[in-house]
Amino acid sequence: MPKSNSSSRISHSRANQAPHRKGRFLCRLCQRPHPLRLCRKFLDMTMADRLNAVRRHKYCVNCLAHGHSHGTCFSDRGCHHCHKFHHTLLHVNPKLRDQLLPGNSSSRSQSRSVSPQPSTSTRSNYRAVERTRPAVSSQGSLTSLIHKNTIILLPTVLVRIDAKVMARCLLDSGSLVSRIARGFADKHKIARLTLREETICALTLYSRHDSSVKIEGTFRVDNRIAMKTPLESLPEDYHKHFPHLLFADPDFHKSAGIDIVIGVDLYPRVMSEGVYSRSALPTAQSTIFGWAIYGSCSN
């Protein structure tokens, strides 16, 4: 793997990897061995600070896990208050939304001018208006707060399945099993085996750069891999920010779909030591297939 000459930019120490102690990951906020949802520092924050902390430390918005992004989270729990796709600790109630989102000063002044004890007929009218008024989505509010003016890159690698077939893979340590898109398996006539209600296939993923580099695994055939990363394409010359790196996915900056998800069962065998990090840029992580780029980018 090519390496940068600048030792200040590339670190091969474990400190730059996801930190752990005795098998437990450390909280990125206070560096103690507990999940973010139990962090006293996090719980004592205002909602605005919580949202900023989740974005800054790259936690999943839906489950507050650190190993994957909200776009690849398959937890169906959601918020206990509104059942939207965000964690309960990040629930933005209407009053707080007025404080966090710009352009709502007029609505706040109007709410203060309303009589605190409206008549019965007035309350009925309010309920009628609320039934016809378009709902304000707290999920949309969270998205605008967390991803304002940014494009999120998820780590992808391009691998070879056989001499002619290439597959774009998402690295997701938050996925319990590795998966393959049913449409991709159908298109390339990949052999499958059905066990009870689950369909699986065995695959060998080869490096595009070195055919001796490979991993073998069992993949669940899944209909749910219907996503693109990034959501918007970055400029064609975005590669220049990562000079001399051999990319795992040369088109990481182009909005495209995912064929395979490499889950936690194979994830440790793919990752290598080595991180390339620069301020205001996404991170480059070394893998056996090349350097994978992930993180937030400014529009």
Describe this protein's structure.
The protein is α+β, with helices and mostly antiparallel strands and 299 residues long. Helix content is 21%, strand content 24%. It has helices at residues 40-43, 47-56, 94-100, 105-113, 120-132, 138-146, 182-187, 267-270, and strands spanning 10-11, 20-21, 24-25, 150-153, 156-160, 166-171, 179-181, 193-195, 198-207, 214-222, 228-229, 256-257, 260-262, 271-276, 283-287, 290-298. It is globular, with a radius of gyration of 23 Å. Residues 98-135 are annotated as: Disordered. Residues 105-124 have a biased composition (Low complexity).
Multimerization state: single chain
Average of the residue pLDDT scores:
76
Uncertain segments: 1-23, 96-139
Strand content: 15-25%
Sketch the major β-sheet.
6 strands, mixed, barrel
SS-derived structural category:
alpha+beta
Query: What shape does the CA trace take?
Result: globular
Radius of gyration: 23 Å
Strand order of the largest sheet: 5-6-13-7-10-9
Order of helices and strands: EEEHHHHHHEEEEHEEEEEEHEEE
Number of helices: 8
Cα end-to-end separation: 30 Å
Helix content: 10-25%
The tally of strands reads: 16
Biased composition (Low complexity): 105-124
Region (Disordered): 98-135
Observed structural traits:
5-stranded antiparallel sheet, 299 residues, 16 strands, disordered N terminus
